[in-house]
Amino acid sequence: MTDRSLFNLATPLAASLIKARGSRLLSLSLCAAMLSACAIGPDYQRPQTAEPAQYKEAAGWRQANPSDSLARGAWWELYGDRQLNGLIEKLNSANQTVAQTEAQYRQAQALVKSARGAFFPTVDLTAGKTRSGKGTGSSSSSLSSSSSGIRNTYTAQAGVSWEADVWGKLRRGLEADTANAEASYADLAAIRLSQQSELVQNYLQLRVIDEQKRLLEATVEAYQRSLKMTENQYRAGVSGKDAVAQAQTQLKSTEADLVDLIWQRAQFENAIAVLIGLAPAEFKLAETDEIPPLPEVPLSLPSQLLERRPDIASAERSVIAANANIGVAKAAYYPDLTLSLNGGYSSSTSKDLFSLPNRFWSVGPQLAMTVFDGGQRSAEVDRSEAAYDETVAKYRQTVLDGFREVENFLVQLKVLENEAVVRQQALDAARESLRLTQNQYKAGVIAYLDVVVVQAAALNNERSALDLLQSRLIASVQLIAALGGGWDGHLEHESD
User: Which CATH class is domain 3-130+153-495?
Assistant: First the structure.
């Protein structure tokens, strides 16, 4: 019989061996199962957090509890831009930061599967051949006589072992791994939301730059006409050389500002390319004539919106995992109960290996525990409890940060809205002042220096209005992200 045939013949061995001693192992297993009703370590209780009853900057808020399972809508659609929607779709499928976090989540899922596997028996099957020998004890022995001490041993063996989870160590381990996997999933949602928010902010800033570019291009054309008119007046002796110099200075300064916008736009365009998984050289975003509208924030937002924040969910599930790890550490004080069954066949020849005289077996429970370890288990319990306290503090801080961020963005939007009203009034006044001043200069009533001052003020007001719109758009994106991703879907659900 060849060595390879041993593996082929040993396949039915495990089944016959388990059947022969299965009743004894089953009895021991039932006893162990009765003992395994308890689990060492504290059961999880959600940590108390100092959450306010409502927000200062919005009515209708009440105390929130983390619940990232609540539905999130396609919040970027609030801006009504099809091109932006398409970019988000590409980000969801090709962003490498999201792909990296998704791979980490799959690793966490695999650990959960491994932890569940520890509840089942382990079955081993081995077959092999051993060649051994020893000396005859005589230095004068011939080579042939010394070879008589060499022998072959053929074995085929099966073994079954199962660790009874008497103290709940395995259950606490599974609880920790499950919580870690859920935290990893929440981290994935947080990274995806962060990347989406970054893309939307970059896109909106790019569109504002497009509008600023159109404004400066129109201003350059107007300044070119003013320069030409001033040069004509200088040649006619109506204006002095200083007026021409002032017109040229104004024109060239505005052209320089226009050039500066080109590299600013390129930076946002390159950032968007990387976010959707492309090299900047492979991506080009054409200019458009419109800026996406500012979404209207509801006057009353339900507190459940904050509950969807994935970073809060991740922090809480880390607390659950740390709490379970305390039980794992405390279970190390107690003995491990392992039930095992082993048996097989062993013979000096391969002939008639699977026969009754060549059979051997063993079955029985085994208790194992550490009697003295120099305080290592106690130190591990202390470390686990300290790690739990750390995660609790992190969870509470994450909740507080969430409330702070929403408060900040709500008040920012409110202040910017009020500022926009005043800024528009200033812009209207600057436009009217420029119109009147240009008419006076054409009539020869005032010098060109007066026109330059008014033109500069009007352009500053135009650009300030665009900068303010950009700030309001960015703040709206940041508020949506701080709320866990939009509000429309949840408000519709509440109304139903």
Answer: mainly alpha
